Every structure is written in structure tokens, then in C-alpha cells.
């Protein structure tokens, strides 16, 4: 493996930086922003998404026939890294629109589904949520119980989803439901395109312990989905779903955002004092920051490795899990280090005039708890690394 960005890739990175410096508000600090889907932030999120679409960057890795630029995996990596570092919102139109809904429709969708959904995604006109998790299924996604029964030309949906990020602002949902309750659990699952304004769909907010609203519960009561909205074959949704998950791979956003936080903590440590001396002179503070920077570089290179493998036509199963596992646990260590450096004042929340760094470290510390649960728990990632990477037997 030889990771060296080409002159064109480095030029593209600089182009992205110049664009963000121009389009982000004066004094933009990702640490001072709330949820991109809050009433205060969502108009700006939509506006930036549209500008990214106009430049062709929103779907830059998509084929040109579907509104993309057919850019390389490495260029996509550069784009995602810079967007994460700058904390730019609106890069996925909710959750999944760019990263798996669109690409999976290109592979498994009908021509009608492609014509209906791909242009509005490429043009930043349609936001999505992903409806997988359920209260009783946990990490065992194949045990989901939301039912889809065929009735004439419609499927009738009943059940509940939970932890649905962006469900409250989504126009459409990417839904996994059980169409054959008698089949083994990995079979009998189908994927659907759901209009979130359909009668019988209700969305209730889940306020996380950091006080933010990104998660939701979604309930289905006799919701009718046209048969034409079935993606792929009936009862074969698990395999289509697995294809969809393959599109979210490198995890470069973890190291990029961690690097931004650490740089801010270094600046804070130089300005704040303890016993009349800058915190940056404290050997314990210096050691902790140095350790986190080293770990951030390790996470970054793990991500680069995944992207490089994809660029070479390889499938990074265990490697992607390594990147996800290390990156998510890194975000927790960085947040914990920030709390240690800020001391008691770090517990103050946004809105307090005494809260250092606008209360961002406190919010990060609380929010980071879910990072090792969402999109596959650390336990699941370790199992994948053990079995697919090391060839160990199933326990």
C-alpha cells in the first residue's frame, strides 16, 4: 500500500477548502453549531446542500448518467475528510441518501425507481432517513419484526423503528420490513421506499442525553406502500441491505473531526491558565494531547487503507471494521481528554457564560457514547475482525 495523493487530488482538496471558506458563515466553528436538522440550522443545511449539488460534489462519485461526476474513490475520500474537518452540514441529505440509497438503487432499483428518486437526490431536493433499527432487535438487525403484508397492489406496514436519525425532516425513508414471518430470519426481509408523509406514519422525537434532537421513533399503523416501491426481490432484502452497507466504508470522518477538536483544545490550553501558568505547560496535558494526536493519525491511516483497497477493486471487510471500531472509540477518548483538560468547567452546557468552548466538549462527551453503538456496535466490529480478518471460528 502506497498512499500518496496525486497533484490533482491535492488541488481538489484546496478547491474544497476555498469553497468552504467562502460559503461557511464568518467565524464558523463546528463546535458552536447544534444539530444540522434543528429549526435554527436546517435552512442553512439545505442551502449548503444545494450549493454542493450545483458544483456536482454532492454525488461526485456517482456515474455521470445519474447526476454524478464519476470521480475516483480517493477524490471522494478527500471530499469527505475536508467536509468532516470543517463540520460542513448537508452532505448526505439526512441519513443514507448519498451513501447507500442512491448507489443501491443504481444496482437493484427498477428504471422507474431510478427516474423517480435519483434526480431529486442529486439535485439536493429530497431528504432521507434509514429505517432499520427496532426496539427489540438491537445489533441483530435480521431479527426485525416490522411487518409488510401484500394486499393487492400495496404492502401494508405495521410496526416500529427506533433511533431513526433525521426522521423528523426526511421526505422519504429507506425501510427494511419482514415479508415472510415463517422464513429464517435472514430471509423473508424486504426493502422498500417509503414516502414519510404516508397516512399511518408517525414520528416522535428522542432527545438524547446531550439535549439534541437527531434520533426519532417511527411508528407504522396500516401504512400502505405501493408494490412498485419494493427494492429488488421480495424476501431478498437482507442481501440488498448488505450491498447498501458496503457503500459506507472508510470512516475518515472520525479522524478528521477528532483532529479539529484536538487543534481547538491545543489553542485553549495555550490560552487557559492553571496556577498562573498556561495549561499547555502542564506535562500531563501535553502528554494526553500528544497521545490523542498520535491515535488520530493512526485512525486516519486506517481510513486511507480502506479507501485505497476500494480503489484497487478489493473488498475491505475486516479493514473497514477496524477503521470504524478505532475511529468511534477515538472520538470517545478525545472527548474524555477534553473533559479532563477543561476540568469542572467542562461540565457546563452551551448557554452558560462560563462554559469553555461554548459547551462543545460537554456535548461531545455525551454524544460520543452512542458512536460505538450506531452503525454496528464495537462488539460486532470485533467479531467481524476476528472471523473475517483473523479467520477465528464463531464462538
Q: Which terms summarize this structure?
A:
Butyryl-Coa Dehydrogenase, subunit A, domain 1, Butyryl-CoA Dehydrogenase, subunit A, domain 3, four-stranded antiparallel β-sheet, four-stranded mixed β-sheet, Butyryl-CoA Dehydrogenase, subunit A, domain 2, 395 residues, alpha+beta, 11 helices, globular, 3 domains
Provide a descriptive summary of the structure in words.
This protein folds into 3 domains: 85 residues, Acyl-CoA dehydrogenase/oxidase, N-terminal domain (Butyryl-Coa Dehydrogenase, subunit A, domain 1, Orthogonal Bundle), CATH 1.10.540.10; 108 residues, Butyryl-CoA Dehydrogenase, subunit A, domain 2 (Beta Barrel), CATH 2.40.110; 138 residues, Butyryl-CoA Dehydrogenase, subunit A, domain 3. Helices cover 44% and strands 15% of the residues. The protein has 11 helices and 10 strands. It has a 4-stranded mixed beta sheet. A 4-stranded antiparallel beta sheet has the order 2-3-7-6, with no helix packed on it. The chain has a two-stranded antiparallel sheet with strand order 9-10. A hairpin with a 5-residue loop joins strand 6 and strand 7.
Give the name of the CATH superfamily of the largest domain.
Butyryl-CoA Dehydrogenase, subunit A, domain 3
Question: Which CATH architecture of the largest domain?
Answer: Up-down Bundle
What is the helical fraction, as a range of percent?
A: 40-55%
Number of helices: 11
Overall geometry: globular
Strand order in the sheet with the most strands:
1-4-5-8
CATH topology label of the largest domain:
Butyryl-CoA Dehydrogenase, subunit A, domain 3
Strand content: 5-15%
Supply the helix-strand structural class: alpha+beta
| DSSP strand count | 10
Indicate the low-confidence ranges by residue numbers.
none
The arrangement of helices and strands along the chain is: HHHHHEEEEEEEEHHEEHHHH
- Roughly what is the average pLDDT, rounded to an integer? 91
State the separation between the terminal residues, measured CA to CA: 32 Å
Number of domains: 3
Q: Return Rg in Å.
A: 22 Å
Mind telling me the CATH class of the largest domain? Mainly Alpha
The largest sheet, given as strand count, sense and whether it forms a barrel, is: 4 strands, mixed
